[in-house]
Amino acid sequence: MNQHALSNDPAAIISADKAHVWHHLVQHKPFETVDPRIMVEGKGLRVWDITGREHLDAVSGAVWTVNVGYGRKRIADAMAAQLTKLNFYAGAAGNIPAAQFAEMLTAKMPGLDRVYYANSGSEANEKAFKMVRQIAHKHHGGRKYKILYRERDYHGTTIANLSAGGQEERNAQYGPFTPGFIMVPHCLEYRRQDGLTDADYGRRAADAIEEVILREGPDTVGALCLEPITAGGGIITPPQGYWDRVQEICKKYDILLHIDEVVCGLGRTGTWFGYQHYGVQPDIVTMAKGVASGYAAISCCVTTNAVFEQFKDDTDHLSYFRDISTFGGCTAGPTAAIENMAIIEEEGLLDNSTTMGAHLLSNLHALMDKHAVIGDVRGQGLFAGAELVTNRGTKDPLNEKQVGAIVADCMGQGVIIGATNRSVPGFNNTLLFAPALIATKDDIDEITGAVDKALTRVLG
């Protein structure tokens, strides 16, 4: 069957998918008796599947990516024009959209100056890890090579990124892992660590990082890699004082601060980047997902000039950053990113994320007043989570099967929400919300209304 004929035959598409496509993050055994979901069209916050069913997408493409919404012809047209003119040239040379977007991007990130292009968040974080390791060899006799990461944070799918991953179920069955990655404790105030009961939890949680540094030896630690707001680990907003203390610690021990903005970047939290809520100055920032809102594959590893300058040394033939991302040379990515950033600016989507995010949190708190199963509500901008428990006093987490049933009920209502899953053993109990930055009050009300009905039907 030719491609055109296949595209007009839903049954043939489903058959081809079931026979040949290996889906992400999905157990395929059920597809022996049921069909996989196949999406065919999107407009704004709405997507339609191959059966013609309409859904309100409250998680921006299921993985928090389509920040400016579906169906942006402006982005597609710009990409088409650029790809016709020059689609690709290896990143050892420059191209016009890459130069233009790098200038636009760094203008939003005072103190950061250099953009290294790649094509996924995992790859961007790999670049950062390699930079840290090479700096250790070039400038610290190879000793300052360890990279700290945080419990519950997630940085990508490769073996090195899983080595820096604080989600045990994401890592299961993929070891052994790369040495030199050391975990520090989480900062989820709702589930404080034993002994941290005073009012200054934020600084105390950060002090736990210093304890790890002292245990490992400050002269062996090269970088600390953190999400500004932990995403897939449960939408963990940092407690007051946490980031101030983290910055102090990094400066004290000459440790590079690497902030992973793959999820939070490009307006998700109401600022261009999540770290900008907290007054910190990172040395390295990685980003992907919302950089081009899923219209093209692009990621960026952005550094200070101080980091960049450490690789400028023509007395040593191995001193430069000897790395390549083949598709970091594709011009579609920065072209789409330019239009994506312009849309965010022109349509005031940072402000909308802030305003609609406040409405989303207000609605979730109202649901918390109504449903005792909601133990905690957390979030920033259009990025929110509701942690579900069986008992507010004991905070025992609702089991993952019931959480999944709530998500499925919302799907049945035509609203796609997310939930932590296969991440933190025993704590995959947080509903996740990250609608596109164009969300309206009516969209938010429809999302939380579906959750209200689902909680009532599933849990009574």
Describe it for me?
Keywords: Aminotransferase, Pyridoxal phosphate, Pyruvate, Transferase. GO terms for molecular function: pyridoxal phosphate binding; transaminase activity. Its cofactor is pyridoxal 5'-phosphate. By secondary structure, this protein is an alpha/beta fold. The protein has two domains: 11-71 and 349-459, Aspartate Aminotransferase, domain 1 (Alpha-Beta Complex); 73-346, Aspartate Aminotransferase, domain 2. It has 15 helices and 16 strands. It has helices spanning 3-7, 10-20, 60-64, 73-85, 96-107, 121-139, 159-163, 168-171, 201-216, 242-252, 305-309, 332-346, 349-370, 400-412, 441-459, and strands at residues 39-43, 46-49, 54-57, 114-118, 146-150, 181-184, 221-226, 256-260, 284-287, 299-303, 374-379, 384-391, 396-397, 415-416, 418-419, 430-433. The protein has a seven-stranded mixed β-sheet with strand order 4-10-9-8-7-5-6, with helices on both faces. Strand 7 (221-226), helix 10 (242-252) and strand 8 (256-260) form a beta-alpha-beta unit. The longest helix has 22 residues, at 349-370. The radius of gyration is 22 Å and the shape is globular. The model has no long low-confidence stretch (mean pLDDT 96).
Strand order of the largest sheet: 4-10-9-8-7-5-6
Helix content: 25-40%
- Report low-confidence residues grouped into runs of 5 or more: none
- Counted up, domains total 2
For the residues shown, what is the average pLDDT?
Answer: 96
Number of strands: 16
Net shape: globular
Largest sheet entry: 7 strands, mixed
Rg is 22 Å
CATH top-level class of the largest domain: Alpha Beta
Could you tell me how far the N terminus lies from the C terminus, measured between alpha carbons in angstroms?
Answer: 49 Å
Assign the CATH superfamily of the largest domain: Type I PLP-dependent aspartate aminotransferase-like (Major domain)
| Count of DSSP-assigned helices | 15
The CATH topology annotation of the largest domain reads as Aspartate Aminotransferase, domain 2
The helix/strand class is alpha/beta
Percentage beta strand? 15-25%
At CATH's second level, what is the architecture of the largest domain? 3-Layer(aba) Sandwich
